[in-house]
Amino acid sequence: MLSHTCKTAIKAVVYLSGKSESGEKAGIKEISEQINASEHTVGKTLQLLAKQKIINSLKGPSGGFFLTERQQEQPVFDIVEAIEGKGIFKKCGLGLSKCSETHPCPIHNEYKEARELIEKIFRGKKIRDLHDHVSNGKAFLIG
């Protein structure tokens, strides 16, 4: 359901959350290495997220990307919506443009339930929540 870019964005922001708690900033190269993603994808993604104020960016020798306390309290949904667009949780599972209750695709009802559950998870989890699972060793950002 989520694009590779969106998954990379979530992992990058979760990594930044950890750095930001100790007052540190991180650069594209460091983030890419820590989440096992291409520098190109991480760079473009973080620039988009900074433009939308989901994360912050500072230029210069002591620059990098970081999150404020308030940004760490954002739901993960904000990242997903920034990358995938506003309609991500309304789209048809088979990609049909005219899928609806009255004109359903073959997986309409099941996919609708799955979509709603995933949206609920992303709206309910804050960036800090995901970082907490990583920092206490209950979850990982690379496989």
Structure commentary:
By secondary structure, the chain is mostly helical. 55% of the residues lie in helices and 4% in strands. Strands 1-2 form a two-stranded antiparallel ribbon. Helix 1 (4-21) packs across helix 2 (28-35), helix 1 (4-21) runs antiparallel to helix 5 (76-84) and helix 1 packs across helix 7 (127-135). The longest helix is centred in the N-terminal third of the chain and has 18 residues, at 4-21. The two termini are 19 Å apart. The relative contact order is 0.17. The model has no long low-confidence stretch (mean pLDDT 95).
In what range is the share of β-strand residues? under 5%
* Separate helix tally: 7
How many strands? Answer: 2
Shape: elongated
Tell me, rounded to a whole number, the average pLDDT.
95
- The proportion of residues forming helix, as a percent range, comes to 40-55%
Ends apart, CA distance between termini: 19 Å
Low-confidence stretches: none
Class of secondary structure makeup: mainly alpha
Report on the biggest sheet. 2 strands, antiparallel
Rg, rounded, reads 17 Å
Element-by-element helix/strand order: HHHEEHHHH
Strand order of the largest sheet: 1-2
